[in-house]
Structure formats: structure tokens, C-alpha cells
Amino acid sequence: MLPKILLLVIILLITVVSLNNYSRSESLEFIIYSHNIRFPAASYKRSTKELPWSNRKGGVIGAIESNTSNYSSLIGLQETTHSQLTDIIDGLNQESPSWSYLGVGRDDGVKKGEYSPIIYNKNQWKVLNDTSVWLSLTPHKPSRYPSANKNRIVTLGIFRHLKTGKTVNYLNTHLDHKSKDARKYSAHLLLDLINSIPNDYPTFLSGDFNSIESDEPYRILSKKLNDTSKVSSKLIGSDLNTFSGFGNKKRYNIDFIWYSGKDKCIPVSHSVVDNYMDNGYRYSDHRPIFTKFIVD
Predict the structure, then answer these.
(1) Is pLDDT above 80 for 1?
(2) What end-to-end distance do the CA atoms of the chain give, in Å?
(3) What span, in angstroms and rounded, lies between the C-alpha atoms of 277 and 168?
(4) Residue 78 — φ and ψ, nearest 5°?
(5) Is residue 80 part of a domain?
(6) How far is Cα of residue 244 from the mean position of the Cα atoms in its chain?
(7) In the chain, how many domains are there?
(8) How confident is the model at residue 21 (pLDDT cuts 50, 70, 90)?
(9) In Å, how far are 31, 121, 175, 228, 275 from 55, measured between CA atoms?
(10) Is 110 in contact with 104 (CB distance < 8 Å)?
């Protein structure tokens, strides 16, 4: 599988020289935040108790703001269309006009189809690399794995924290909801992608993996990565499952935050956030999760 991501290695090598000579003295305390926000379903496709996006977006934006405002943060979203992404960036920029994103639409590599974007604050982070890879046999062009229901994508960013000089690698993704084979292949591809990054900085992976802990993709990833819901010093909301439905579906944990670079990185706390709005409806069928880290 490695030859298929050779192009990525070449692209990433461009950043290595600037990374190697940068000061890394001050510790970085920051948050990885992940949330499947639910695409803006047409009225005839909406679940019972599911409100239209126009009534949900305030809850999604408010949750991001309230849970990340005290720390530098990197935010990974799933099931995000371009119009939703625009709404979220516009909403965040009302408080601090410095938010931007990495990522492309999975259907055409531009704006069509769902994104797995990474949102960041330009006053906190400098982007050193921005790469999109499809979870398929042809990872450098819009495509899907043969048995997958949809095109699936992973967004990779290399970020330098402006205040501390610390550098981190962050990947955000959403695995296929239909095909077990596609999810298994994607898990292997994600590890190959992580292994190909030509630096030794801490690496973080978030997303909706459409896999519970007993499924093979989880087991594949757990051989090389750490699940923050298992190893964080403090767990908040651990009684809540990450998939909630809109109140009428089975509940389970399929959203995770992973990390490597154990000797340089401490997961201080892992949180699951409830997704109820004041009107009693949910702003997504998934609950947000976030982990606070210290990187030395």
C-alpha cells in the first residue's frame, strides 16, 4: 500500500527543513475537538425529531465555541457540506474573525460532496501542509473503495503553534457506513499514511469511524495508536455514547480521538458533550467529543 502514497511523502518532505530547525521549548496545551454534525437532510429524509440545519447550526457553532474558547484548538468535523462549513466559519468569525479550514469536497476534490474538514484559528496556528487523501485504491483522486457506499476522504494538516513553536500532525476522517471491507482497508491506509509522515511530531487522528470497539477497524488502529477515551487522566461524560440519534435510534460509540507520540504527549482529559439544545431537540445525531492534550 505504501507506493500508493508516495506522492504524499514527496509533498510532505517539502516541510521537513523548516520543521527541523524550529525551537520547541515551551509546552503546548491544546484541544482536539471532533463532531459529526449531520448533513443538511431534505425534509423527506429527516429522521423523527430531526430539525433542519437552519435550526441546528446554532447548537453546533455554540458547542464549538463553548468547548474550545479557553485553549488553542484544532477542530475536525464530519458529514459537512460546503454550505454548512461556510455557516460554521461565518458563525465562529463573529466572535474572532480569524477562523479558516483545510479540506475539500469528497466527490470532486473541490466543493462537491461532504468534507471532513479541519477548522483552525489563524491567530493560533500556521499551516505547514494541507493534504487530502481518498480512502480508496486510487487515493490521490476523488474515488471510492470498490464496496464502499460513498467516496471517503481523510484531511491531513501539519500545524505549527504560533505561541509555543510546537508542531503537530492532525488527520480527520469519516469511514464508510455500509462496507466492512472498506472500513478495514481505510484503517490500514490511515496507519500507512501516518507512518509516511516524515517527521517525529505528535500525530492525532479523529473522526466518525462507523466502528465500535469490538470491530476490526478499531482493533487495527489500536495496535499503533492510543484511544484517548481509554487513556486520558480524566473522563468527562463517559456515560454518554457518541452516537445519539435524534432520539429514536440505538446508541453506541463510533467517534474517537487517537494519538501517537506517547513520550511527547499527555492526554489530560477526554470529554463527551451532550447535544441537546434549549428547545429539547438535538443539534446533531452525534455528540461532540474533545480531548485536552499537553505536548512537551
Answers:
(1) no
(2) 32
(3) 33
(4) -130, 160
(5) yes
(6) 18
(7) 1
(8) very low
(9) 27, 25, 27, 31, 13
(10) yes
The x, y and z cell numbers of residue 190, run together, are 490511515
For residue range 80-96, list pLDDT tens digits in order: 999 999 999 999 999 88
Domain range holding 151?
A: 2-17+29-295
Domain assignment of residue 187, yes or no: yes
Q: What is the mean pLDDT of residues 218-225?
A: 98
Q: Tell me how far apart the alpha carbons of residues 6 and 31 are, in angstroms, rounded to a whole number.
A: 30
**In this structure, is residue 22 part of a structural domain?**
no
Q: By C-alpha distance, which of 4, 2, 293 is closest to 159?
A: 293
Output the CA torsion sign for 204, 206, 210, 212. positive
Return the pLDDT at 141. Answer: 98
The CATH number for 72's domain is 3.60.10.10
Q: Flag whether 137 is in a domain.
A: yes
For residue 203 the three cell numbers come to 500525530
In the chain, count H helices and then E strands.
7, 13
Average pLDDT over residues 58-69: 98
202-227 mean pLDDT: 98
Which residue in 285, 181, 287 sits closest to 241, CA to CA?
Answer: 287
Angle, helix 82-93 to helix 53-68, in steps of 10 degrees:
50
